[in-house]
Design a protein that fits this description.
The chain is α/β, with parallel strands linked by helices and about 425 residues long. The chain is built from 12 helices and 20 strands.
């Protein structure tokens, strides 16, 4: 069997959590390969809404094994809170969750540093979720980070002290107030809690599962346009959110990658700072936000909204080798009589392009749109055979432009509001 990868093609929040949950019964293993508690993955079923930050979205499926891979950054405090929230659902989390010893630990000073760095940037701030993502990946790459496996070593407290001391030195030149005793105690309690779980060499685990014929779904976090290399740098996250990240974040060789599910909204959203060519700053954007309930799953911040952007989707499809597309939140466009599709960009020198310019931040990018008729009706309860013709037209137009089939359409947040398309 292969490792299939599911990842966001835009700026995150495409609906990855919902779809991983929908697809999980087809998979033996679901594995997160990057990111950390900056992610907020929403799942809805039986009238209950769940938001997961650290735990893979296969956790509600009783027979699915869930892996937090080595590419992830893990905050034991967020992890503990999340596990405690799940307790009332009587899941066998201890049996079904496996955590890589090589995953990087987020310690409380990483969150403080995140705040300090954002404050220092002033108006140029990234708009980080302030979960300590950047500083923890910085320590990983700087070869001084702590890893999950370290919590099992006899001198963990010493290692923890050594790293926090390094951070305190940096924090001295920033004006951040904190109560270290409380933070330390909360962290050490959470570390103890973490020790009860299966802390493993996940690269061996995943490869043994592959060898045994198991099917594996790698669950991406964030989106390709937030990737550390290919996103709108520096307004990005600090990990590899693309397909290649699944190889390094799980220890899977490229030859084992199978399908690549590219997930996107029928329009665009972005939370935090950074370029967004099709952003709607007017009343239309406000209506989109309201209709799509576009408020961050992790921070509650309003998401910026705009029309679909084909040059950036084409770019993400290219980088990821997407084999099938999944279109989410089609129902949000129900209220628009006409729908705009950005097919090209006009740059400040008057040139027209379909590629993503290197200079995004200081370039004025004007989207060039085509306009199609909306369907102007509810999609509640529709099936493959009863799609409004305008919706079919929208889908077919995107498939033609993007040159990849759209095999799934989502028309609401619930598990059941999902249409599998055969093409
Ligand atoms: P993720 O980070 O990619 O998992 O996405 P989020 O969970 O952060 O954001 C997606 C939001 O859209 C969540 O509130 C979902 O419940 C919701 N959602 C997912 N699919 C649909 C859909 O087809 N229609 C509508 N209206 N909401 C959806
Ligand atoms: P999911 O997995 C949307 C954004 C932040 C900020 C930038 C850097 O739910 O799709 P960071 O906390 O990583 O330092 O923030 O990236 N961001 C996300 N936006 N969805 C996410 O995750 C995000 N994770 C980070 O808003 O602009
Ligand atoms: Mg999210």
């Amino acid at each position: 069997m292969k490792v299939d990868v599911l990842l966001g093609l835009q700026w995150g929040d495409e609906g990855k959590g919902k779809i991983v949950d929908v697809l999980a019964p087809k998979y033996d293993v679901v594995a997160r390969f990057q990111g950390g508690p900056n992610a907020g993955h929403t799942l809805e079923f039986d009238g209950i809404k769940h938001v997961l930050h650290q735990i893979p979205s296969g956790i509600f499926r009783k027979t699915t094994k869930n892996v937090i891979g080595n590419g992830v950054v893990l905050d034991p405090i967020v992890f503990k809170t999340e596990i405690e929230k799940l307790e009332k659902f009587k899941l066998d989390v201890k049996a079904n969750l496996f955590i890589s010893k090589k995953a990087t630990l987020i310690i409380p000073t990483h969150r403080l540093l995140d705040q300090a760095y954002e404050l220092a940037k002033g108006v140029n701030k990234i708009g980080s979720t302030l979960k300590g993502i950047g500083p923890s990946y910085q320590d990983k790459i700087g070869r001084q980070g702590l890893r999950v496996g370290d919590v099992l070593s006899a001198n963990f407290s010493e290692k923890f002290k050594k790293l926090s001391d390094i951070h305190f030195e940096i924090l001295k030149s920033h004006n951040i107030q904190f109560d270290w005793n409380a933070l330390e105690q909360q962290f050490l309690e959470a570390v103890n809690f973490l020790k009860q779980f299966k802390l493993i060499d996940s690269e061996y685990f995943i490869n043994a599962e592959l060898e045994a014929g198991s099917s594996i779904l790698a669950e991406g976090a964030q989106g390709s346009l937030l990737d550390i290399d290919f996103g709108s740098y520096p307004f990005v996250t600090s990990s590899s959110t693309v397909t290649a990240g699944a190889c390094t974040g799980l220890g899977v060789a490229p030859k084992h990658i199978g399908k690549v599910y590219g997930i996107f909204k029928a329009y665009s959203t972005r939370v935090g700072s950074g370029p967004f060519p099709t952003e709607l700053l007017d009343e239309e954007g406000e209506r989109m936000r309201k209709q799509g309930n576009e408020f961050g799953s992790t921070t509650g911040r309003p998401r910026r909204c705009g029309w679909i952007d084909l040059p950036s989707l084409k770019y993400s499809i290219m980088i990821n080798g997407v084999t099938q597309l999944l279109m989410m939140k089609a129902d949000v466009l129900n209220i628009f009589p006409t729908i705009k599709i950005c097919t090209k960009y006009k740059l400040s020198d008057g040139s027209i392009t379909e590629t993503i310019p290197y200079e995004l931040v200081n370039e004025k990018i004007e989207p060039i749109y085509i306009e199609v008729n909306g369907w102007n009706k509810s999609l509640e309860g529709i099936t493959n055979k009863e799609m409004p013709k305008e919706l079919t037209h929208y889908i077919q137009l995107l498939e033609k432009e993007l040159n990849v089939p759209i095999t799934l359409l989502s028309t609401g947040p619930d598990r059941t509001q999902t249409i599998h398309r055969t093409v």
